Amino acid sequence: MCLAAVVAVIGVVALLLGRSGGETLFFENVAEVILTPVEKVFSGIGNGVSEFFGYFSDIDELKGEIKTLKEENAELKANMREGDAAKSENDELRRLLALSEANPQLETEAAEIIARSPSNWYSTITIDKGSADGIALNQPVISSGKSLVGRISRVGTTWAEITTLTDPEHSAGAEIVRSGDLGITEGDSSLELQGLCKLSFISKSTDIVVGDTIVTSGMGGIYPHGLLVGKVTEISPDIQGISRYALIKPEVDINDLKQVLVVKNTTME
Amino acid sequence: MKITVHGIMLILISVLQTTWLGTLTVFGIQPNLFIVYTVITAFYCKKGEAAVLGGICGLLLDILIGRYMGINTILGILTAYVTAHLCEKVFGTRNLLIILCASAVFSLLWESAYYIVAFGLIVKKFAFGNMLLRTVAPETLYNCVVTLILALPLRKVLKFLYADN
Fold first, then answer.
1. Is the full-model pTM beyond 0.80?
2. Full pLDDT tens readout for chain A, 269 residues
């Protein structure tokens, strides 16, 4: 009761004295001096608590932002991949164009690969050009690097099938560039899955070493002379021991091919 | 209804076999969806129906390969007929494990028979032991994995289509 009366008196005195020109009163100053550190502490605690609860309330917002950023990142990555794919396709087409321009005597038709062999026994590829585009049976097919891919083995109006050089039923006359010796390059079922082919019928006197470059010999009437076949990776005697055979790593990776050139005339040198 | 579903499935299989599966090779080996489909469906059809479907699968494979027309057709008919017969007379059940075993056995027989006829009798470049290890056995394993993946949804569709069998 007594304390209440004291507080009331102080309040009345304070009201009566009033505030003049923004000056702080003595007891006002004393109160503020005492209260300021306490306020500071409580304010600090309050901010901490507020930040703590604010953190939880921000989580949803942050999650949303992370999701959006992840989506944007995925989209950018996809765009980058598409860009890379387009660039590599563009490079391939440029090489094909350069090859056509560098060999004006070559009458070629660029084609895109649309399907591959459904069976493990054969190595064939289907292209999007057919008899309507001038494609005919047994025309040679090459890659942008003037490497042998194979020959046309089936033709439809808008499609054609290529039997590649690793197919077990493919063969072509071949020549060892360094020595000029001849042989026959042929596919083999046991080598096809490794992406290799064979240079057969090379006699013991044939000058051939690992690393030799093999090109088409032009014999046989299908392939022109000088198409790059690949490099010799191994030389072994055949089962009878009369002649030898060499394993060839084709210059072109059939599985990585996207576009090819069909040679419509075979007067290339 | 059955013809439509099988028609759509066969178109899908033909497209996948010549495009997408080429990128899913393991050591250069791709599975054969035609064999897998022939075996799984034969468990649900009557012998005659299974033989027709197996024949169509084989014929499609022959057309896509484009070499010796008829070998896969005959193998498809035989595979489907024998599978349906065994399912009816011996197995008496459509247990997933039995379907898996049938897929393994018939993949092995189908591909071995194709190699013997196409390479042994026609082309005469024959090295059966080598090819059994390098091509037929890995393909059989891969076909089993594909059977396991395809059998679950396919069995539901076939159960619905052949509810009367």
1. no
2. 555 566 556 555 555 555 544 455 565 566 566 666 666 666 667 667 667 766 666 787 888 889 889 988 888 888 888 888 777 777 766 666 665 665 667 788 889 999 988 999 999 999 998 889 989 999 999 988 788 999 999 999 999 999 999 998 899 999 888 888 888 999 988 888 888 999 988 888 888 889 888 988 888 888 888 888 999 998 888 777 778 889 999 988 888 888 899 998 765 44
Query: According to the 3-state scheme, what is the secondary structure of chain A?
Result: CHHHHHHHHHHHHHHHHCCCCCCCCHHHHHHHHHHHHHHHHHHHHHHHHHHHHHHHHHHHHHHHHHHHHHHHHHHHHHHHHHHHHHHHHHHHHHHHHHHHHHCCCCCEEEEEEEEECCCCCCCEEEECCCHHHCCCCCCEEECCCCEEEEEEEEECCCCEEEEECCCCCCEEEEEECCCCCEEEEECCHHHHCCCCEEEEEECCCCCCCCCCEEEECCCCCCCCCCCEEEEEEEEEECCCCCCEEEEEEECCCHHHCCEEEEECCCCCC
Residues of A in contact with B64 (CB under 8 A): 118-119
Q: What share of chain B is helix, strand, coil (3-state, %, to 5)?
A: 80, 0, 20
Q: Is A211 on the interface with B (CB under 8 A)?
A: no
Residue A126 forms contact with B (CB below 8 Å): yes
Distances (CA, A) of A70 to A61, A63, A80, A82: 14, 10, 15, 18
Enumerate the β-bridge partners of residue A260.
A111
Q: With the C-alpha atoms ordered B47, B53, B55, B58, is the resulting torsion angle positive or negative? A: negative
CA distance B71 to B68: 7
- Does A120 reach chain B within 8 Å, measured CB to CB? yes
* Residue B123 near chain A (CB below 8 Å): yes
Instruction: Answer yes or no: are the C-beta atoms of A267 and A143 closer than 8 Å.
Output: no
Say yes or no for a CB contact (<8 Å) between A168 and B119: yes
Q: At A207, list the tokens.
A: 């000058």
Q: Is the complex ipTM higher than 0.90? A: no
